[in-house]
Design brief:
The chain has 317 residues and is an alpha/beta fold. The chain has eleven helices and ten strands. It has a single domain, classed as TIM Barrel, CATH 3.20.20. β6, α5 and β7 form a beta-alpha-beta unit. The radius of gyration is 20 Å and the shape is globular. The structure holds flavin-adenine dinucleotide (FAD). The site of flavin-adenine dinucleotide (FAD) has 21 residues, from β5, α5, α6 and β8.
């Protein structure tokens, strides 16, 4: 079922979770171990992230180095199929522009359609770790909106080959990303919002936000979106903060603020356990307030912390 149908039919705020594929070499059991403690809270859907290859230098037998491309977390499409089969819950694969040609994307979409996956979250992706600027693949997409157009074309039966403009119509429901504290490359929030509006006007069914730790940022963002005619559901993305190190890593990596009141509470903690308790309590309060505001879905980035998210679920029931 499509995410947008879940939202339209819901009587209350829904729950959804986001997971990463395991590192290459691990089994699907690691995904089930991660999700099992969360499934009794009936997520409407589960997102699975997509990861591009990274450039690495591998030592050859003669001692010299060769540049290779290695994908550390493959398997998004397979995991989505496994989740749907194992838990009978909808899966939402992320699709990214970075590292993929249009043809590879088309093939992934064909696989997903055959597997009965009804949803995709369409993203640009970031530059590889050791590179400053995002560069598309030759014959790849530069912006998420270009990838979105490709999915929309397939939803209208149009494939890449010119003589295949009357193919099977896929029926993907399309989500896109939004940034309450603006995307780090955007010169200002206004221009970022205009590009978000373009994605929505081009067919995106809903928006999922980057994580935020101050609900007011989300409330202001939704207001600004509505003012410029972005009327689709805007799903808040929420992440548990559970270590002191994250106080500097999260703002640097995701370009989001951590409110002073929250960071002061974390800094006062003497043990890791205390930090986790404060982080969990903060997320519970955020979730309760967002639920009272009437958000369509609470979307949790579970990233290795399913038991923290479980505590949050128990507290907000
Ligand atoms: P875009 O919408 O393409 O925007 C990128 C930048 O370009 C923005 O600054 C925007 O303002 C600007 N822009 C947009 N359109 C245009 C245009 N037509 N002309 C000029 N400028 C434009 N990354 C992964 O690699 N894998 C994942 O699974 C993943 N999942 C994510 C899930 C969520 C909910 C979020 C919020 C992010 C996720 N990311 C993931 C990270 C994401 O790929 C990065 O934040 C990326 O830098 C931007 O992606 P986007 O889809 O927002 O890009």
């Amino acid at each position: 079922m499509k995410v947008i149908e879940h939202i339209e039919q819901a009587k209350d705020t829904l729950i959804s979770f986001e997971i990463l594929p395991p590192l290459k070499g691990k089994s699907i059991e690691s995904i089930y171990d991660h999700l099992d403690p969360l499934m009794e809270f009936n997520p409407a859907f589960i997102n699975v992230t997509y990861h591009r290859s990274e450039h690495m230098f591998k030592k050859k037998l003669d001692g010299s180095f060769e540049k290779v491309e290695i994908r550390k977390r493959p398997g998004t499409v397979g995991i989505c199929a496994a989740i749907m089969n194992h838990y009978n819950v909808d899966a939402v694969p992320h699709l990214i522009c970075g590292g993929f040609t249009k043809e590879e994307t088309e093939n992934a979409l064909i696989d997903l359609a055959f597997l009965g996956v009804d949803n995709v979250l369409v993203l640009r992706g970031d530059a590889p770790k050791n590179e400053t600027f995002f560069e598309p693949e030759p014959n790849g997409h530069r912006y998420a909106i270009d990838l979105l157009h490709q999915v929309m074309h397939m939803n209208n039966g149009m494939y890449l080959e010119e003589d295949l403009q009357n193919g099977v119509k896929t029926k993907f429901c399309i989500g896109v990303a939004g940034y309450p504290e603006k995307h780090f490359e955007a010169p200002n929030l206004q221009s970022d919002l205009q590009y978000l509006k373009q994605k929505v006007d081009s067919g995106a069914d809903y928006v999922v936000t980057q994580m935020f730790f101050d609900n007011q940022k989300y409330f202001d963002y939704v207001k600004k979106c509505r003012e410029i005619g972005i009327n689709v559901p805007i799903i808040p993305g929420l992440k548990p903060l559970t270590t002191k190190k994250q106080l500097s890593v999260i703002p640097r990596t995701f370009q989001v603020d951590i409110p002073t009141e929250f960071s002061n509470e974390i800094l006062k903690c003497k043990t890791d356990k205390e930090v986790e308790q404060v982080g969990t309590e903060w997320l519970i309060q955020q979730s309760k307030e967002l639920k009272a505001f009437g958000v369509p879905v609470l979307h949790y980035y579970t990233l290795g912390k399913p038991l923290v998210v479980r505590k949050v679920m128990e507290a907000i029931q």
